[in-house]
């Protein structure tokens, strides 16, 4: 049996900066983010490093909740340019042969047929390298952009998402693998009895008709999810094949990892076929001293307004409505929507049931890279190995504070060290994303047990 090897995912944004709003200010960051070449260079770097996939996080609005205005967002470049990630991925797929191509699409604001067609088309055009990150969308800015007065209630979003995923998977199963014939001599294009009509009627969605895109080399795209609430984790255990998490310490990660894998098994699925990758922001160089110099510069880039704007977006609360040292009331804390994990983390880190705005900035770390993985190849690889072999994850989602240098540094310095230790592949073992992830080719109906789960 081959030794277990970690999975690596490049964490990307089709915008003017990375997940860190300050990244565009870095003197070494490229600023031609409106060009295909910008993203194609990232794709080439990730493929050179044998990454499983590059994945686009996405939201359907810019952070314009702070002060109920967008001017500060534009002035400071706080994730304000947001391109369509799937279109961007097609440009990246054109210059790569193996790199997986993952993108976010919302189950709250899109329609199942549209998502099914877009991602299955991408899967065919990339020879089986596509993945769909299933999100329910969580902030009021997205609701406003999409013509809704407010965001759906949290659990209702997931109830709708359960139906949405079932419809998409049913579409992807519509064509049997050998439905196409394309025989000019006989004039027969396909076997009509091997293409199946969908007749779905749910509480939120209905879909009746015949899907238009045949199956791909990997069967269908890989499903990604990153829910952090109890309902979100249950959703991941039921549907996801690759799960993104943000564990904050090794012991906590080990507990969460064990609990999640148990939930996958309880849902009637094989835990080995659901990969868990935790977010990390390695700042690396040839030596630890060089990496520390890089980190010192990166640490100076974020601004207070970055954190205030991103907190307002994530928690659906206007942080401009309170003074910096004014405590949140019990009612305000209970009424915070969006990413509850951020609120809970601030309470835990500060030890305050009613933190102030300033506490939210310092306790959340919003807009600032975590400085817990800074070093040369050995130091960074040591920490990754500890988490991977210690049962806290199956791999890592690698973010960068400099584009493209953050990825280049990791590929040049850390990947060879991981390979030397036998922890990471030296080459791709197959052409599809499922090959990279060690997942079997999807067969029609292989998700039905999950659909039946309560």
UniProtKB/TrEMBL annotation:
Residues 435-454 are annotated as: Disordered. Residues 34-391 form the Luciferase-like domain. It comes from the Bacteria. The keyword Membrane does not apply. InterPro entries: Diverse_substr_monoxygenases, Luciferase-like_dom, Luciferase-like_sf, NTA_MOA. It holds the Pfam family Bac_luciferase. Keywords: Flavoprotein, FMN, Monooxygenase, Oxidoreductase. Belongs to the NtaA/SnaA/DszA monooxygenase family. PANTHER family: ALKANESULFONATE MONOOXYGENASE-RELATED, C2H2 FINGER DOMAIN TRANSCRIPTION FACTOR (EUROFUNG)-RELATED. This is LLM class flavin-dependent oxidoreductase. It comes from Roseococcus pinisoli.
